């Protein structure tokens, strides 16, 4: 599948933004984080900025961005529509939670309750994003449980890194808890990715060149319908650098999981200044890594329509 | 709405006979000609006379070679493909705007170009490649089963069939109500053992394909041709061609290749 930059940016940025929102709510509800206004302001700007930027970026690949509002209407059948509705609904409790924290200096009681509602809505939104891909039977690499688990894990993982980063820069009292969340979710992220790769490497779609044509025997494309690539082949038959996927997988393992994991672990033991530097390094590495991870999520996915264009399996 | 109708009054669709299709592409050409000015028109082309022409087509004709490993014999099968107007059309249910819909009266799947946002998700959901993105118009286009031709009272009755059907020089394409077991097309499917494509995708296509008939007589004595001396594919994905890639992709490609 063609890895559109706008969609990669949207899924990673909004995932991280929602993840940060979830951690802000959880650490408020447990009383781990004091309602420091400066910290709250920075964290909410970062979280809602990433979410909003991501949502706006997702409209960039549309043929008619000015009609994007129409995408809210078909929530009864369409996961894309559900995602839009959930994203919009999340703003209400999230903004109230932010207002309580930043304007009234509280993140407990009713504010914490609003935060937990926002966190639940954020998780629902990430789930809807994952389901846009997971619901497509045509793409074997997406139509499985790991897509849903992956999107939610990476939202929480990148959110936890941003939470630890903001906390370390502001010198919050309980940075160890924040770093702990980042360490645990990074390890979890690695395990999920490993299982996902094992799944897509070991299985393939039930559709083959034979089921696509229903011809008896060994089916192979003799002549394509045309000499040039068409829309279907460029969108669904993305091939460039797939032979590099092994290298890019290694890059994902190093930048998305290994470097952040070690950096957060060292930050856990280090003093405040060193902890902030290490957390920044870990987060920047993860940011680069998650972009590669998401690029691969698209580039490695094969679509069954390519069975009509010479592929034997999908 | 993108809810699919529980049932449609009729199931209009095509029956394509793979035994007699000669792969002349006339269906694709006449389809383009009619639909360029029809319901979903124009069907735009980009760089039609340039180095790499591309454009929106509702019909594409693939040619496959099928080898029977038991007898060692092969045959060439021309394979026209267009929208199958599925009963459980995934392209309709994924549509976030309601621009895609399946008609209750005849089961035809259409796109409203005035409300389509061009998100391309329907083309991802379709296993058959029936939906194509119109770069110029920014909306999705698809086969309309010539909805503006089959109900057109100003045309003589025998012309009220899809353009691909009326133009086929060998009669490989039939049009009718596949929901009516007594219709000509349903009888044809019954008699020839017509099949649905990719049944495992659970889309319940309406269109049916009639498989090539078994060959008469003994197989040829000598089976020739190994995979090594076969004709090259027209579009070789494995070639080193990277011209189509963007600047960043090419740079990454080069960096990773070292």
CATH topology descriptor of chain A: Formate dehydrogenase/DMSO reductase fold
Parts with pLDDT < 50 across at least 5 consecutive residues of chain A: none
Helical residue percent band of chain A:
55-70%
Poorly predicted regions of chain B are: 229-237
Give a quick account of the main beta sheet of chain A: strands, pairing sense, barrel closure. none
CATH architecture of chain A: Up-down Bundle
The CATH architecture category of chain B equals 2-Layer Sandwich
**Strand order, sheet with most strands of chain B:** 10-1-11
Q: What do these coordinates show?
A:
The complex is a heterodimer of chains A (314) and B (258). Chain A is mainly α and 314 residues long. Chain A has one domain (5-309): Formate dehydrogenase/DMSO reductase fold, CATH 1.20.1630. Chain A has helices at residues 5-29, 37-58, 79-104, 110-134, 145-170, 175-202, 209-213, 231-236, 245-269, 272-299, and one strand at 218-223. Chain B has one domain (12-210): 2-Layer Sandwich (Alpha-Beta Plaits), CATH 3.30.70.20. Helices cover 19% and strands 19% of the residues of chain B. Chain B contains seven helices and eleven strands. Chain B has helices at 26-35, 90-93, 121-125, 147-150, 163-167, 184-192, 247-257; strands spanning 12-17, 45-46, 54-55, 60-68, 73-81, 100-102, 109-111, 131-134, 139-142, 173-177, 208-210. In chain B, the strands form five sheets. In chain B, strands 10-1-11 form a three-stranded mixed sheet. Chain B starts with 11 loop residues before the first strand and ends with a helix. Residues 229-237 of chain B have low confidence and may be disordered. Strand 1 (218-223) of chain A pairs antiparallel with strand 4 (60-68) of chain B.
């Amino acid at each position: 599948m063609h890895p559109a930059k706008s969609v990669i940016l949207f899924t990673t940025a909004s995932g991280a933004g929602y993840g940060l929102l979830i951690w802000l709510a959880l650490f408020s509800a447990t009383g781990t984080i004091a309602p420091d206004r400066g910290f709250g302001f920075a964290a909410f700007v970062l979280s809602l900025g990433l979410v909003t930027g991501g949502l706006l970026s997702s409209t960039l690949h549309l043929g008619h961005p000015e009609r994007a509002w129409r995408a809210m209407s078909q929530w009864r059948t369409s996961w894309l529509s559900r995602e839009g509705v959930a994203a919009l609904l999340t703003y209400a409790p999230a903004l109230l939670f932010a207002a309580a924290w930043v304007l009234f200096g509280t993140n407990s009681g009713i504010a914490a309750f609003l935060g937990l509602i926002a966190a639940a809505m954020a998780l629902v939104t990430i789930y809807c994003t994952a389901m846009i891909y997971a619901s497509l039977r045509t793409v074997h690499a997406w139509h499985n449980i790991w897509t849903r688990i992956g999107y939610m894990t990476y939202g929480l993982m990148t959110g936890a890194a941003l939470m630890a980063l903001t906390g370390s820069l502001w010198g919050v009292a309980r940075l160890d808890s924040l770093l702990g969340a980042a360490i645990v979710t990074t390890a979890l992220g690695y395990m999920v990715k490993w299982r996902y790769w094992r799944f897509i490497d070991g299985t393939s779609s039930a559709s083959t060149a034979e089921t696509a044509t229903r011809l008896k025997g060994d089916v192979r494309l003799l002549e394509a319908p045309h000499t040039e690539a068409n829309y279907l082949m460029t969108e669904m038959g993305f091939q460039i650098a797939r032979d590099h996927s092994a290298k890019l997988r290694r890059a994902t393992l190093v930048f998305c999981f290994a470097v952040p994991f070690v950096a957060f672990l060292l930050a856990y033991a280090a003093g405040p200044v060193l902890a902030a530097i290490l957390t920044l390094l870990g987060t920047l590495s993860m940011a680069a890594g998650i972009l590669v991870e998401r690029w691969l999520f698209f580039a490695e996915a094969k679509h069954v329509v390519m069975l009509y264009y010479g592929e034997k399996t999908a | 709405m993108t809810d699919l109708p529980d049932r449609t009054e009729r199931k209009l669709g095509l029956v394509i006979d793979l035994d007699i299709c000669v792969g002349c592409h006339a269906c694709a050409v006449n389809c383009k000609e009619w639909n360029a000015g029809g319901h979903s028109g124009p069907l735009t082309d980009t760089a039609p006379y340039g180095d790499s022409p591309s454009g929106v087509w509702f019909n594409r004709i693939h040619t496959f070679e099928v080898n029977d490993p038991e007898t060692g014999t092969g045959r060439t099968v021309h394979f026209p493909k267009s929208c199958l107007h599925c009963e459980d059309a995934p392209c309709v249910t994924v549509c976030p705007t309601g621009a895609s819909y399946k008609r209750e009266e005849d089961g035809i799947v259409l796109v409203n170009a005035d409300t389509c946002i061009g998100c391309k998700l329907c083309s991802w959901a379709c296993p058959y490649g029936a939906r194509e993105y119109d770069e110029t118009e920014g909306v999705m286009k698809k086969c309309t089963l010539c909805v503006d031709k089959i109900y057109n009272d100003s045309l003589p009755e025998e012309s009220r069939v899809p353009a691909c059907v009326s133009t086929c020089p060998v009669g490989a394409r039939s049009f009718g109500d596949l929901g009516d077991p007594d219709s000509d097309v349903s009888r044809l499917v019954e008699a020839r053992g017509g099949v649905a494509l990719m049944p495992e995708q659970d889309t319940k296509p309406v269109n049916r394909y009639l498989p090539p008939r078994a060959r008469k007589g003994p197989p040829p004595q000598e089976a020739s041709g190994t995979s090594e001396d076969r004709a090259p594919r027209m579009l070789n994905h494995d070639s080193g061609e990277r011209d189509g890639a963007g600047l960043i992709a090419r740079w990454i490609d080069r960096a990773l290749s070292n």
